[in-house]
Design goal:
The protein has about 70 residues and is an alpha+beta fold. It has a single domain, classed as Factor Xa Inhibitor (Irregular), CATH 4.10.410.60. It has 3 helices and 3 strands. A hairpin with a 5-residue loop joins strand 1 and strand 2.
């Protein structure tokens, strides 16, 4: 059976932690920043974690060797 291919778009967006969670960078911090509050921009800098239901699908289909 051939190797499964990793979806490269997903590999660029998601990283796996040691505990098995899927980490990603939050959106909306690229442009039009003047109308966003400092608190909102500060919270967008932090990385987000995918919920456990979607984590299974990402690890199974998009990142099979992650």
């Amino acid at each position: 059976m051939p190797k499964m291919k990793t979806k490269k778009a997903a590999a660029k967006r998601f990283t796996l932690t040691a505990s098995g969670k899927v980490k990603y960078k939050k959106m909306n911090l690229r442009h039009i920043l003047t109308k966003k509050s400092s608190k909102r921009k500060r919270n967008l800098r932090k990385s987000g974690f995918v919920n456990p239901v979607a984590t299974y699908a990402i690890k199974k289909t998009l990142l099979p060797y992650g």
